[in-house]
Design goal:
The complex is a heterodimer of chains A (360) and B (347).
Chain A lengths: L2 H13 L7 E6 L3 H13 L3 E7 L7 H4 L14 H19 L4 H4 L1 E10 L15 E5 L2 H4 L7 E10 L1 H14 L3 E4 L14 E4 L5 H4 L6 E11 L5 E5 L5 E4 L4 E4 L3 E2 L8 H14 L7 E12 L4 E9 L2 E9 L5 H24 L8
Parallel strand pairs in A: 1-2, 1-7, 2-6, 3-9, 7-15
Antiparallel strand pairs in A: 3-5, 4-5, 8-11, 8-12, 8-13, 9-10, 10-11, 14-15
Helix pairs in contact in A: 2-7, 2-10, 4-10
Chain B lengths: L1 E5 L3 H14 L7 E6 L7 H4 L14 H18 L4 H4 L1 E10 L13 E5 L2 H4 L7 E10 L1 H14 L3 E4 L5 H6 L4 E4 L15 E11 L5 E5 L11 E4 L4 E4 L3 E2 L8 H14 L7 E12 L4 E9 L2 E9 L5 H22 L11
Parallel strand pairs in B: 1-2, 1-7, 2-6, 3-9, 7-15
Antiparallel strand pairs in B: 3-5, 4-5, 8-11, 8-12, 8-13, 9-10, 10-11, 14-15
Helix pairs in contact in B: 1-6, 1-9, 3-9
Classes of the chains: A alpha/beta (360), B alpha/beta (347).
Chain lengths: 360, 347
């Protein structure tokens, strides 16, 4: 489909009866970042229309494979205070949902458990300890369950599951008048001039769409199994072995394979994951209905959260980049979506300031 | 040595197993049989949610506290085995909620990771202002009884569906020792004014997103009269009914509404939960567990009876400690009758 046809569709959608003031925003990507940013924009940026455009939607996004545990990673390139703020904002947002009647619809649950260490860590209390609930060190009696481990954290946190959360977000986007479009964007300029601002939430797609060589996949393979008697999460501090009980299955993981783009499950890896998890929780030997899944974490030394004004000849296209969360997508999504929305607001202010129009 | 266990709830079956495990190897003539008029899934044990948790106040008999602890430690030693789920056994964490500060329970160091709730955690429960968090165990009645039945069957213990009308009838058939595990119906074999039914009603729902138990307390109303939500291995139990002296075994609608409204208030997502079933049962309430020997004389013979009933709403919580105590008493009977053969290698 040529770009002129695309303009026709967008224009017929955008121009019909639209007041002079409406800023037309395209959000590229419909994983947790794209959808949550669309929701934030609809709530916080007045006078705009939102269209979410993606080639993949739930249940086929990376966010659908993720277990969605609110246990944040550490981004080397981001100040700790900022990470803590993002995590706290996400936690508070999901905690409000879990305490409401919508929790099950939104796929958000409370779950308690343990993060265990084979040697005593230099940092015994992580930066996020007072964000999760009831954080404390494991007692000696609790550690007896894990004879290979000498130290641990016990806490209660949240799990937010893509297959329910993404449809819940999509409902909210549509409910506020937003549109959802299935289309593969090969170049951000395809969105010009039909849209005034582009929010780029394309994850690994930014390698192409933003020419960003800093983003690379970290392949994760998991097993989603039936083991409803497992009520606690167990996470080895290396992040390689974990057991995350969810709404209707238990996620067993995992792998962290840098630079590996392969989306097909590997049977040997599945066997290895099951064996490592059974070592921590022997009752998993009775797990049934095992399903293999693969996701590519969109990894980057830090989340890219910044504005960029694309220029080509006389054409200008303001872009807000919002991608690169690696293994911390669900854990950080709302905090970074709020920040992305602030950046979008800044772009909107610029567009609405008459003096600036000569700059465009 | 013929042993007859009357009763096939958790008390009867676990006591039978404990005796068999301990004495079969040293007493070749040991023959254990179980008589009951109800087997799983029709016993009181089958209705229980199965959470290990004693009452909040210390028992009048300090031995009961000890038996609770023995049971917890025994189950904890098994929860890490691959078979745990087949036994109906799993670790579970959760909340005990109060409207005002209360002293810590005597069992706080038996369970794992006991602590008070933080203010943020209490935000989840707007009607409550104080509480505890701890990790405990679930031992699901139905699964556990099935497991006990398998273990007993492997050992050659026989089961008979029959309603025993008197100790005498069992004695005249040749029983040397009778273990009385008849629960709330013990009064039919021997009047016991201290034993009363504590009727409970529960609703089982499918709510797999709930991972924690939530037990509310209203000290003015008394134990189990306040809503509770207990996730099991597959289904979740909702309850909050305790009616002393009520022998009605049918589910009633006002109780259903009390449970449903109370639990939905506590956990609003329950509105989406599918109801699997509803059951009533009688907690065998007694000021203390009756665990003691009694010698009954029928005709020319003495029959030993060991009573083990009256475990109220904490049968699963206390069962193994009691089973071991009964086994100890049984051992004394064997000694008194010079039946314990000491193998030569031990001399």
């Amino acid at each position: 489909m040529g770009s002129s046809n695309l303009e026709l569709i967008f224009d017929s959608v955008g121009h019909f009866g639209r007041p002079m003031d409406t800023v037309r925003i395209a959000v590229v990507g419909a994983g947790v970042m794209g959808l949550s940013t669309a929701v934030c924009i609809s709530k916080m940026v007045p006078g705009c229309s939102i269209t979410v455009i993606s080639d993949k939607f739930t249940p086929e996004t990376t966010s659908d494979v993720a277990a969605g545990m609110l246990i944040p990673p550490t981004y080397p390139d981001t100040p700790i205070q900022k990470q803590k703020q993002w995590f706290k904002e996400t936690f508070d947002h999901l905690f409000a949902i879990v305490n409401s009647a919508e929790a099950e619809d939104a796929g958000v649950i409370l779950v308690s458990g343990w993060q265990i260490f084979r040697s005593i860590p230099t940092e015994e209390v992580p930066y996020w300890a007072d964000v999760v609930l009831g954080f404390r060190k494991m007692t000696k009696d609790e550690l007896k369950k894990f004879p290979q481990h000498v130290f641990g954290h016990a806490f209660t946190t949240l799990k937010c599951e893509g297959p329910a959360y993404l449809p819940w977000l999509q409902k909210r986007v549509k409910g506020s008048g937003g549109l959802i479009l299935t289309r593969r964007i090969e170049d951000l300029w395809e969105l010009h001039p039909s849209f005034d601002i582009v929010v780029n939430c394309s994850g690994l797609g930014s390698r192409q769409l933003a020419g960003d060589s800093k983003i690379f996949p970290v392949r994760g393979q998991v097993l989603k199994v039936q083991a409803p008697w497992v009520k606690h999460f167990i996470r080895d501090s290396s992040g390689l072995t974990y057991i995350y009980p969810g709404v209707s299955n238990v996620t067993l993981g995992g792998t962290r394979q840098k630079g590996d783009w392969n989306l097909s499950p590997d049977a040997e890896i599945s066997k290895d994951i099951l064996s490592r998890c059974c070592a921590l929780e022997p009752s998993l030997r009775g797990a049934y209905d095992l399903r293999e899944k693969v996701g590519l974490r969109p990894s980057r030394p830090g989340v890219r959260l910044e504005k960029e004004l694309l220029a080509q000849g006389s054409r200008r296209l303001p872009v807000v980049h919002h991608y690169g969360h690696g293994s911390g997508g669900i854990a950080m999504h709302w905090g970074t979506a709020l920040e992305a929305t602030r950046l979008v607001n800044e772009c909107v202010q610029v567009l609405r300031t008459p003096a600036s129009q000569s700059k465009l | 040595m013929r042993v007859v266990v009357i009763g096939a709830g958790v008390i009867g079956l676990s006591t039978a197993l404990c005796i068999h495990e301990r004495y079969r190897s040293v007493l070749q003539s040991l023959d254990v049989t179980v008589y009951a008029d109800r087997f799983t899934p029709l016993t009181t044990t089958d209705v229980a949610a199965g959470l290990w948790q004693p009452y909040l106040s210390e028992p009048s008999n300090p031995q009961e506290a000890h038996w609770n602890q023995q049971t917890f430690n025994y189950l904890l030693s098994l929860v890490g085995s691959p078979n745990a789920a087949n036994m109906g056994l799993a670790l579970v964490s959760g909340y005990n909620l109060f409207r005002e500060a209360v002293p810590d329970p005597y069992w706080k160091d038996i369970v794992l990771g006991f602590r008070k709730l933080t203010l943020r955690e209490l935000d989840t429960f707007p009607d409550y202002s104080y509480g505890w968090f701890n990790t405990s165990l679930i031992l699901e009645g139905r699964k556990y009884l099935q497991w006990l039945t398998e273990r007993l069957t492997e050992r050659g213990v026989k089961f008979f569906l029959r309603k025993v009308e008197s100790f005498e009838e069992v004695s005249r058939e040749g029983a040397d020792v009778i273990i009385n595990c008849t629960g709330v119906w013990a009064g039919a074999l021997q009047p016991d004014p201290l034993l009363q039914p504590g009727r409970g009603q529960i609703i089982k729902v499918d709510a797999p997103w709930l991972k924690h138990f939530v037990i509310t307390h209203d000290p003015k109303r008394g134990i189990y009269k306040s809503p509770y939500i207990i996730p099991g291995l597959q289904a979740t139990t909702l309850g909050g009914i305790f009616q002393l002296g009520n022998w009605s075994e049918t589910n009633n609608i006002p109780d259903h509404n009390t449970i449903w409204e109370g639990c939905c208030r506590l956990e609003p997502t329950l509105k989406d939960a599918e109801i699997i079933g509803e059951w009533s049962g009688f907690r065998p309430v007694r000021p203390q567990v009756r665990l003691e020997r009694e010698q009954l004389r029928f005709g020319s013979s003495n029959t030993e009876v060991i009573h083990n009933y009256g475990h109220g709403g904490f049968g699963l919580t206390i069962h193994w400690g009691c089973a071991q105590e009964v086994a100890k008493l049984f051992g004394k009977i064997l000694e008194e009758r010079n039946l314990l053969r000491i193998p030569p290698s031990h001399l």
